[in-house]
Amino acid sequence: MRAKYIMNKNKKEIDRRRTFGIISHPDAGKTTLTEKLLLYGGAIQQAGAVKARKAQRYATSDWMAIEKERGISVTTSVMKFNYNGFEINLLDTPGHQDFSEDTYRVLTAVDSALMVIDGAKGVEPQTEKLMEVCRMRNTPIITFINKLDREGMAPLDILNDIENKLQIECTPLSWPVGMGKRFKGVYNLYKKELYLFMSGQETKSRASIVINDLSVPTLDKILGSQADELREDIELIEGAANPFELDHYLKGNQTPVFFGSAINNFGVKEMLDAFVEIAPSPGPRAAVTREVSPYEEPFSGFAFKIQANMNPAHRDRIAFIRICSGKFTRGMKAFHHRIGKDVIFSNATIFMANERENVSEAYPGDIIGIHNHGTIKIGDTFSEKEPLQFCGIPNFAPEFFKKVILKNPMKTKHLQKGLIHLAEEGVVQVFRPLAARDYILGAVGMLQFDITMERLKSEYGVDAAYEQVDYNVARWVQCDDPKKMRDFEEQNSANIAMDAEGSRAYLTTSEWQLGYCMEEWLGIRFCKTREINA
Ligand code: G4P
Q1: For a 10 Å CB count at each end of the chain, is N or C smaller?
Q2: Same domain, 371 and 414
Q3: What does the pLDDT read at residue 6?
Q4: How many distinct structural domains can be found in the chain?
Q5: Looking at 254, 278, 302, which one is the last position of a domain?
Q6: Distance between Cα 48 and ligand 1 center (Å)
Q7: DSSP category for residue 355
C-alpha cells in the first residue's frame, strides 16, 4: 500500500518537471533569454543578474578567474525555477570560450531543448553542431527567433534556412508584424491574439489584443498599412505551413517556431507558456540491459558533468547527476555500478527553486550535485536496487589537438595519472599514437587545453606545456571483421591512436583525408562519438 502511494506521489512530481537546455550560437541572445525566463519564474528579481555574471566570465580568460567563476557557475549550471506549477530545470550549455564537451554532454541529460536564433543571422555553426547532438536522441526542440526589433532576414527565409541546414520541419506558432523600425508585434497563430510591441519592456505585462477575425477594421487602425501585410502573411502561412503536430515535435521531427525580442521581453511569455504545455516531462531512458521508466520506484541516475571545485586545498569535485527514476533523498544509499560499491549520498547539493531551499528530496528530471574526490567519472550510473548502466553519454570527436610537452621527464608517471583522471572527468581527451610515445590531447573547445595544463600543475605537480600538432580530425574506428581491423591498423599505423579507455581512433589532418580513407576502407566504421564505459 505504501509503495503504491510513493509511486503516485512521484508521478505528479515527475509530470510537472521540464528539464531543458538552450542551443544557440554565441550572441544570439541565450543569456538575455535565460534572464527573462528566470524573471518569469521568480528565480531572480531583476534584469541584469545573469548578464553581470556572464560579463565577469567574458572579461577574462586567465585560469584563476575561470576557477572562481566555476565556483559560481556550479549554481548557474542548473537554474531551477517554478512557472505556473511546473518545476523547470534549465541546464546551462556553456558557450563562448567556455564551449567544451560539457556543452554537448549537457544535452544528453535534458528532455528537450530551446533553440535561439538571431533573426539577422539565421542558423549559425555552433547551433548546427549542437543540433547534431540533439538529433542523437531525437530531442524535441522549440525555436525562438530573436532580435526582431532589428532589421533581419525575412521570416520565411529564416524558416527555410532552418529547414535546409538543420533538416527539421518548421511550424510557426507566432508570426511577426514587421521587423526593425517597423516591428509592431507578433500574432499568436494558435490563440489568434495580436500582441503589440513596446520597446524597452522589462516587466511581465504587455499589451495584447484579441483578434479572432483578421479582417476587422480595428486591425487597420492599429497597424496601418501593415495590417494588409499581416493578413497576406497569415493567409500564406495557414495555407502553406506545416500544421503543428505534437507527436512530430516530440519525436524531434518538427520544431514549433516563435518570434520575439528577448531584450525587450517580447514574445518570451508566449513561448514559455507553450513550452510548459507541450515540452515533454522526463521520459524513459535506455540502459544496457533495459529501458528504465521514470515512474519506477527505485532511484537511478547518471553523471553527465564533473566540475572541479574552487578550493584547491580540498580538491573535491562535484558530479552532476541527472535523476532518471525513483526519488532522491539526502543521505540515501545507491550502488555505484562501475566500482561495484554502495555509496552514501550524504553530501549532495540539490538544485532547488529559491523559495524551497530546505527541500531535501529530488525527482526524475532534477539534477543533484555530489561532492567526491575523483571517484565519479562521466557516464557513471547509480541505482538503488538493480545494477544498471545507462547508455547515451558519449565522448565527442575532438576538433582541436595538441601534443603535451613535459618539462620535467621525472614526472612521467604523474603526467600519466593526471591525464587519465582528467580524461575521466571529461576535461580533455587523451590519445596515445601507436607509432609514438606522445600524449595527444583532443578537445572541442580551446580553453580545455589551458584548464588541463593548469590542473596538471596544481593537482598533480606536473609542469607541462602543449604544442601544435598536425591533426584536425578524429574518428573512433570499429570493424566486425578482426582481420580487416588488423590490416587497417597496420597500413595506417601513423594515424592510429588509443584513447584513455583503450578505444582505437583514427587521427588525421583534414576532413578530405578522412573522406579518402573512408572510401578506401569500406567496412570500417568511422564514428563521431564513442559511448563511455561501453
Ligand atoms: P548569448 O548569451 O547568446 O551570447 O547572447 P546575449 O544574451 O549575451 O546577447 C548578445 C547581444 O545581443 C547582447 O548585446 C544583447 O543585449 C543583445 N540582444 C539580446 N537579445 C536581443 C534582442 O531581442 N534585440 C536586440 N537588438 N539585441 C538583443 P551586447 O551589445 O553584446 O551586450 P550588452 O551591451 O547589451 O550587454
Answers
A1: N
A2: no
A3: 53
A4: 3
A5: 278
A6: 12
A7: G
